[in-house]
Write a structure and sequence with these properties.
The protein has 291 residues and is an alpha/beta fold. The chain has two domains: 219 residues, Rossmann fold (3-Layer(aba) Sandwich), CATH 3.40.50.1820; 50 residues, no CATH class. Helices cover 36% and strands 18% of the residues. It is built from ten helices and ten strands. An eight-stranded mixed beta sheet has the order 1-2-4-3-5-6-9-10, with helices on both faces. A two-stranded antiparallel sheet has the order 7-8. Helix 2 packs across helix 3, helix 3 crosses helix 8 and helix 5 packs across helix 6. The mean pLDDT is 96.
């Protein structure tokens, strides 16, 4: 099962937003899963995971945050913040008639999941944090900030694949040519004019640049993490080479939340695609027990 339908809804400030909506296969009725992507990514990141989950009987919605994928770009770039993304997800849940869901949050998507648990606790029945936690290693943050919003000069798909490799080879050292082409097809979109462009608004970098200019440190999200870890099942998936959740941070997270399940994907950095055998095994066990 691989098919999905395009679902749109409106944000509180009038943006038309998009998600991929995968119907769950037959079987025991369980809560749907909402998949939330990372900073420069989009719903296509879950093109392997979402149908795999749907085949277990759960409906899956893979969200495009504002400014990404098929969702509208925000004319006010300072709105590209986790608080707005969280409000957008809650608007989707209301529009789709979903009161509770299990969340899979990659990187930024995991931060949004923590915010959702604080904003509307009953909406988050369980959560998977994919290579993200209450603190971020500064080396990884600097790496990601260094390319976010920077235009990519790509005249064809081969150049798009080369770009994808240039900024992500540190995370996926075992990838080959076919992997990088598939990666590029998720990261870029071809416009009506045939031009191949990154599938996000470059202005998503505006809040990051403003914080850097002000010398602001990354916030400590420990209270949000502890809130997410209280009273609901939680799984942390970490890339063994991650420069966002390094090994000491993973140890700290597991000490803060002893009941949290944990899986490590060897040979992969930030962030696992969640189609790796270690990730799928952990997700299968987690979803089997989740509401």
């Amino acid at each position: 099962m691989t098919g999905f339908v395009h679902r749109t809804w409106s944000s509180a400030d009038g943006l038309v937003l998009h998600a991929r909506d995968y119907a769950g296969a037959g079987g025991e009725a369980k809560l749907p899963v909402l998949c939330l992507h990372g900073l420069t990514r989009n719903a296509a990141d879950f093109e392997a995971l979402a149908p795999w989950i749907a085949a277990t009987g759960r409906r899956v919605l893979a969200v495009d945050f504002r400014g990404r994928g098929r969702s509208a770009w925000d004319p006010t770039p300072t709105n590209y913040l986790p608080t707005f993304y969280a409000a957008d997800v809650l608007a989707l849940m209301d529009a789709a008639g979903i009161s509770r869901a299990v969340f899979v949050g990659t990187s930024l998507g995991g931060i949004v999941t923590m915010l959702l648990a604080a904003t509307r606790p009953a909406a988050v029945a369980g959560a998977v944090l994919n290579d993200i936690g209450p603190s971020i290693a500064p080396e990884g943050l600097a790496r990601i900030s260094g390319y976010t919003g920077v235009p990519a000069a790509t005249r064809n798909w081969s150049e798009a694949a080369a770009y994808a490799r240039a900024i992500n080879a540190v995370a996926f050292p075992a990838y080959g040519e076919a992997d990088w082409m598939a990666f590029a097809r998720r990261l870029f979109a071809e416009g009506p004019d045939g031009a191949i462009r990154l599938a996000y608004d470059p202005d998503i970098a505006v809040p990051l640049a403003a914080a850097a200019a002000a010398g602001a440190a990354a916030p400590d999200l420990t209270p949000l993490f502890l809130g997410l870890a209280t009273g609901r099942p939680l799984l942390l998936v970490r890339g063994g080479l991650s420069d966002i959740v390094d090994a000491p941070r993973a140890v700290q997270m597991r000490a803060l939340a002893p009941a949290m399940a944990y899986a490590e994907v060897e040979g992969v950095g930030h962030a696992p695609m969640l189609d790796e055998p270690e990730a799928l095994a952990a997700l299968a066990a987690f979803l089997a027990e989740a509401p």
